[in-house]
Amino acid sequence: PEGILGDCLVTYGKKLGDDSVFGMAMFEFGEGLKQMADVKYALDDTTKQSFLEPLHHLQTKDLKEVMHHRKKLQGRRLDFDCKRRRQAKGTHGSEIGKTYDEIRQAEEKFAESLHLAQMGMFNLLENDIEQVSQLVTFAEALFEYHQQCTEIMRTVVENLKEKKEEAFNRPKLEFVPKTLADINIESSATPDGINGQTIFHSGFTSYGQDKDDPFDPWSSRPAPTKGG
Where is region (Disordered) located (predicted)? Predict the structure, then answer.
């Protein structure tokens, strides 16, 4: 938004010309806004590289891996509990040895998943220094952005105040209207019979044209004649 508004102010400030204090003030303000836009683009790049991308990696890899181990741990715990309940109901004959082996295997898998889930969470929490460092980098970039914008706007405000004083102290010009001759427009009085009105023509002849002038309301009428 700052860049777009800055471009508009610069463009139309130039159109008003160097003689217009308002035009020069618009130009100064527009340049300041464009500088703020450049600073904001730099903030976006820094934030993406030093904070958002590492955060995305943490979400899609480290946290995803921990959640995978936790989900696997939950499933193996259910399997282990199920086999223990079956054992508690009692088995007979050859099924006793088979049930014991199943419980032992389920317990080993449960213990393995528990270890992996704990280790993953521990490593994630122990990585605080890196994550906090990334957060500090983001905060510093944001602080620098606002600091630079403050300096830019301070300069803009000072320049605008100077323009205000310049406009206030500028001598008032006397209004001198231009005549038709000054802007190369010929004038001719209408013939009699048209209520004494005056028609102005700019480079065209009202009568005897090959084509009607769409901007001349009299061009489509026949030329009046004296006494006619």
Answer: 201-228
